[in-house]
């Protein structure tokens, strides 16, 4: 018996090594493409292959659900027992997959069929029907591929004649593809939904600027946090540097979205708390801005020379998304904690100022002027609306909490600003803790996001 097991595992290992990994990669890409298009995936099989078909759907729906973002629209046609037994009883077992496909599928969808022999009549009928409907067909077979192989658009044939081995291989193939797909989806656009938007969409949209639309100031935290840490370290030299930095990072992040002066006020409080003599907050602000502009002035110069490079300094998909919202009749407002003169100049430089017919508002040295609270109140008062007509887009605590307080819908941007793709895990966690209704990495697939928030 021990030799039988050892020999079986040895043959399985050889068959795995002989399998076409390149074809599995191509199939994985096709599956990801199906998700991006919004199409559905159907699987089917009999016996052990039915179990694999069900298992693969489970992994597509749940196993590929990255950071609670939407999984695949997947359905195993062999799963609904009442439907399968009804169709088998009334029409014959050969019809059980075909009829379901005719009911649920449409052109552009994907059928993945599992059959060890490649000759199962119900699988063959499903494949033939799918091809007639414009549904792409991927087969997983074994032996010589059987009747299934030439009927499929793509067919992965396990290199063995043993039914047990080829069923094992099919499941290994599925898990290998899931690992590949999950890795690909880590940086692929999708939306993480905490609460769904209201039906009928929104009339007004409020945007933050830095980190939400503009990447001109990408890395500003890497200027502010070390500078503030340096200031606090001077008055408390014996205090652990890492502990000071964590305190600074915490209050800088919590106040992100408010005017910069609020963060500088908090710095002054921390200095006084440690027995130091604090400068005026405006003095801290001036020094921070001096350091920041030294870092980013080259980006401004690049855009002044060539405005066509604006997309390199915008969150991906930003312009298309703003354009799409405008076309839907949504009135757009921009409110930033950055100084108003700088916001106006940089919005023009990036070519997005024209979208904000509601106005562009930034910070002024008078602390209370043009705060996001005032802009939101202005939107509500001037348009005689409730907060439920307002949706916001921002990457900081402030805009999320303010909009939630008036029962608006808060979409959080957790953009990985350095790579310009994917989600910044730390930022995502912080925004979710602020009670964001949804989290996105960027605006890459603007049409999908617009359809989602407008309930279309």
Question: Mind telling me the CATH superfamily name of the largest domain?
Answer: HAD superfamily/HAD-like
Which percent range fits the helix content?
40-55%
Oligomer: single chain
Report the average pLDDT across residues.
Answer: 93
Count of helix runs = 18
CATH class of the largest domain: Alpha Beta
| CATH fold descriptor of the largest domain | Rossmann fold
Broad shape: elongated
Largest sheet: 7 strands, mixed
Please state how the strands of the largest beta sheet are arranged side by side: 6-12-11-10-7-8-9
Mind telling me which CATH architecture of the largest domain this is? 3-Layer(aba) Sandwich
* Whole-number count of domains: 2
Coarse structural class: alpha/beta
DSSP, total strands:
12
Determine Rg (CA atoms, Å): 28 Å
Beta-strand residue percentage: 5-15%
Low-confidence stretches: none
List SSEs in N-to-C order. Answer: HHEHEHHEHEHEHEEHHHHHEHEHEHEHEH
Distance, first to last CA: 61 Å
Verbal overview:
The structure is a single chain. The chain is of the alpha/beta class and 456 residues long. It has two domains: 2-185, Glucose-6-phosphate isomerase like protein, domain 1 (Rossmann fold); 192-456, HAD superfamily/HAD-like (Rossmann fold), CATH 3.40.50.1000. It contains 18 helices and twelve strands. A seven-stranded mixed beta sheet has the order 6-12-11-10-7-8-9, with helices on both faces. Strands 2-1-3-4-5 form a five-stranded parallel beta sheet, sandwiched between helices. Helix 1 packs across helix 8, helix 3 runs parallel beside helix 8 (163-185) and helix 9 (221-235) crosses helix 10.
């Amino acid at each position: 018996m021990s030799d039988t097991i050892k020999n079986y595992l040895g043959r399985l290992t050889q068959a795995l090594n002989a399998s076409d990994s390149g074809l599995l990669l191509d199939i994985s890409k096709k599956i990801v493409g199906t998700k991006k298009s919004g199409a559905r995936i159907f699987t089917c099989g009999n016996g052990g292959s039915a179990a694999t078909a069900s298992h693969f759907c489970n992994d597509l729906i749940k196993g590929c659900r990255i950071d609670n973002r939407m999984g695949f629209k997947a359905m195993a046609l062999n799963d609904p027992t009442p439907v399968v037994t009804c169709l088998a009883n009334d029409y014959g077992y050969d019809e059980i997959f075909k009829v379901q496909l005719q009911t649920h599928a449409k052109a552009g969808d994907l059928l993945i069929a599992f059959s060890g022999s490649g000759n199962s009549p119900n699988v063959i009928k499903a494949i033939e029907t799918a091809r007639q409907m414009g549904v792409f067909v991927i087969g997983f077979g074994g032996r010589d591929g059987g009747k299934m192989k030439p009927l499929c658009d793509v067919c992965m044939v396990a290199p063995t004649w043993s039914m047990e081995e080829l069923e094992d291989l099919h499941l290994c193939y599925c898990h290998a593809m899931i690992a590949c797909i999950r890795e690909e989806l880590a940086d692929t656009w999708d939306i993480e939904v905490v609460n769904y938007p209201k039906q009928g969409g929104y009339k007004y949209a409020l945007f933050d600027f830095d980190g939400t639309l503009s990447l001109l100031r990408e890395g500003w935290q890497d200027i502010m946090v070390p500078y503030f840490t340096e200031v606090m370290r001077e008055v408390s030299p014996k205090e652990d540097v890492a502990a000071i930095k964590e305190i600074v990072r915490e209050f800088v992040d919590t106040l992100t979205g408010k005017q910069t002066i609020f963060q500088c006020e908090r710095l002054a409080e921390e200095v006084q708390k440690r027995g130091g003599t604090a400068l005026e907050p405006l003095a801290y602000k001036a020094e921070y801005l001096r350091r920041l502009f030294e870092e980013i002035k080259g980006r401004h110069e690049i855009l002044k020379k060539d405005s066509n490079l604006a997309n390199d300094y915008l969150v991906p998909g930003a312009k298309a998304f703003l354009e799409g919202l405008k076309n839907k009749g949504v009135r757009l407002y921009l409110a930033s904690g950055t100084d108003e003169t700088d916001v106006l100049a940089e919005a023009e430089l990036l070519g997005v100022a024209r979208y904000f017919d509601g106005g562009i508002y930034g910070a002024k040295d008078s602390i209370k002027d043009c705060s996001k609270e005032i802009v939101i109140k202005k939107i509500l008062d001037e348009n005689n609306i409730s907060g439920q007509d307002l949706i916001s887009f921002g990457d900081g605590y402030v805009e999320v909490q303010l909009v939630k307080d008036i029962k608006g819908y808060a979409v959080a941007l957790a953009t990985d600003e350095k790579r310009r793709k994917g989600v910044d895990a730390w930022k995502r966690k912080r925004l979710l803790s602020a009670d964001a209704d949804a989290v996105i990495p960027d605006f890459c697939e603007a049409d999908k996001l617009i359809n989602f928030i407008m309930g279309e």
